[in-house]
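Quick log. Single chain, no ligands specified.
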Amino acid sequence: MDIKKSLMQKNGIIVMALAEEFFSKNIGDRIDTVGSISEKYETSRGTVQTAIKILQEQNLIAIESRGHLGSFITHLDYNALIALTGIDNIVGVMPLPYSKKYEGLATGISETMKNMDIPFNFAFMRGGNNRLESLMRNRYDFAITSMFTAKHYIDEEEDIEIVTSFGKNTYVDNHGLIFRRETDIKKDDFKVGIDYSSKDQVKLTLNYFNERKVQLVSLKYNQLINSIENKEIDGAIWTIDENIKSNENLNYVLISDNIYNMDDTEAVIIIKKDNKLIKELINKFLDANMVLEKQRQVIAGEIIPQY
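-> predicted structure:
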């Protein structure tokens, strides 16, 4: 494809703009008239016609005129169109993959995004607060959080939106109070680990101990279990996963997630509201059902996590 040379010429900017616009379309959609497109981009009709011709000649799009009904899209090469928009890689950020659920999510998303011709990578970062902040600073194209965290920031009028949700128990399993088997969980000087960078864990912890006087100890989420085992703290709210259930030194008491409609257990993908191109890209290339199947296979030990 020699289209890169075309981008260096006079029509380059409008070709890139139209590539992004056509990427958001579907086969069968009616396109705007040349006149309305030229007004939208404040350029001449001739420039628009030339840009559309370039896209057609490179077989990125095909358009069929249907007389007074207008012109309709009959072919779209999404991979080639996205390559013209200036995006040369996609990077998402998600929690540290310490559980099979997270490894399954990472594997499933990475696998389904292979349908793109653009390189895709994950970064890993603890704390929904940290991931949101990095997203808003444009360090990443999208972030994975719980539904609970996403709704919290949307309610606080953060400029984000949810583009994909995966369903209950796709982010974590049910939560519980984790403690050493010999620990009296009703004692007055109970030391509780809390990670202030995690909206979910903070809210669940404060709600559970609402009517008790306990000592809150600030720790990173991935340090909580070791801190319990090392007797640095007495307990912490944590997801009841396979590692907890098989740990002979620990015990747990399930807590109710129903007060949050189990939103704390559901994985979602969030983006900045103004990032329409990434929204279209995720909607077109991400197969949520495939992601969930890969997650199931990782949890069941049927496949090795790859991300």
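The mean pLDDT is 90.
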